């Protein structure tokens, strides 16, 4: 005989699916925590270290390039002074007299 005030018992799932469902529910529940932690771990282990190494390499290359540019500018300034001197007739005459020994 059934009582009108009692609820019928729910049909239980098969025993194999219940732990899997609980595991899935727990994974979904904790996903907002694990996803950012996973991304931070990937950044820390794979993304940041190579980026820092590349940054150091580029800074060293920049220093070498700046030194080379300074040397080339010094050479250029000397060559420009020599060119302007070679266009001066008085300087050319002085060089000729020095070469001839007069």
Mean pLDDT: 85
Structural class: mainly alpha
Number of strands: 0
Strand share of the residues? under 5%
Query: What shape does the CA trace take?
Result: rod-shaped
Distance between the termini: 141 Å
Described by its quaternary structure, the protein is: single chain
Number of distinct helices: 2
- Which runs of at least 5 residues are low in confidence (pLDDT < 50)? none
Any overview of this molecule?
- By secondary structure, the protein is mainly alpha-helical.
- The chain has a domain at 33-100.
- Helices cover 80% and strands 0% of the residues.
- The chain is built from two helices and no strands.
- It has helices at residues 17-86, 89-100.
List strands and helices in order, with pairings:
Layout lengths: L16 H70 L2 H12 L2
